[in-house]
Amino acid sequence: MATTAAATPPLLRRVNAGKLLGVLSTAGVMTGTGLIEATGLTRATVHAVCNDLIAMGWVVELDPGHDAPGTPVGRPSRRFEFNSQAGYVLGIDVGAAKTTVLLSDLRGETVAKTGRSFQAVKTPAEQTQVVNEAVLEVLSEAQVTDAEVLAAGVGVAAPVDREGNILSDDEFWRRFDAGLTTRLSELHGWPVLLENDANLAALGEHWRGEARDVDDLVVLLAGERFGSGLMDSGRLLHGSRGGAGEMVYLKLVEGVGDTAGIARTAREQGAKAIADPAVKTSLRKLAGDGAVTAELVFAAAADGDKVAVGILQQIAGRTARVLATLGILFNPELVVIGGAVATAAKALLPEIEKQLATFTTTPPRVAVSSLGDTIVSVGAVRHALNYVEQHALDLQLNCRG
């Protein structure tokens, strides 16, 4: 009993610090009264925890002598502001073809961004080297040292459990367990937090994208391979071993048959069309001596090419079936289509929505992401910021002022 009592105050202090930082990091200047109302904490607790956070460098106390006109004369209110320059976080997307790295301040504002291709990569060690080079580039561009980075979020296209472990029972997923997080921690000294890329996409959309006011959400990464991040009542769903949202089940769905995403399907169907001399299509001329790409299929369809239009109609019907399964299983309010095809996918929305309504009586709203190629890395930044807020009392700040 004595042990429990002794452990309680530090735990409460940690929880309360996280609450206050969570509020201050998204607000401007706040008074003690405002923080009391926003957190539900007592006045004594708010001021005590703020004093701790000021001493540690997380919060700045401003001059109290600027109360609004009409404020009753008396003791001026204490005013607090989050120190967004107290440190930095990294958001790293390790995709199939490239890595995208964001460096952000503690309000999540991007300070530097870079991307590097994995085209010449042949081994996990080479992939880690490319990611590290991208990290070094953004740190150098912003003149930020390792000591100023508090955490890094990393997204990979594999199931990741709540403890940050990749599901490695399946041979395909074992390829992603390449020791990247361990190596980055060894090189730089900051915590590296692994998460599934679609889960991070859901975090990013919920924070900065199309789903800012939506807590029941699915984000569908739909480029080369379908993958989904699930959010219920504002919380990510992982499942017992990180497999929630994995879409291998699509092999069993009539009219879908596999996990190939929109870009891959468009490319393969376009290549099949021009390989048949009997098929008349502008794709053959557009491709020239090169390969058909998904972008060419969408461009040809926009110009009225009947073959390309037919391919996109087929893709829209297939995607509608995928969305219908997600809608039936998880009943989200909104499904956001993200990934490299998001911009092009806008052209598919009318047909997707039309067909979706025929597959389920409770179709979700459908939108396309506005976050572009940063959808996963933005979510990785949010993942790192969550860690920082939860562990603020354990982190050593090395900010420059």
From TrEMBL:
InterPro entries in the record: ATPase_NBD, ROK, WH-like_DNA-bd_sf, WH_DNA-bd_sf
Superkingdom as given in the UniProt entry: Bacteria
One of the Pfam families matching this protein, by short name: ROK
Family stated for the protein in its record: Belongs to the ROK (NagC/XylR) family.
Record-given protein name: ROK family transcriptional regulator
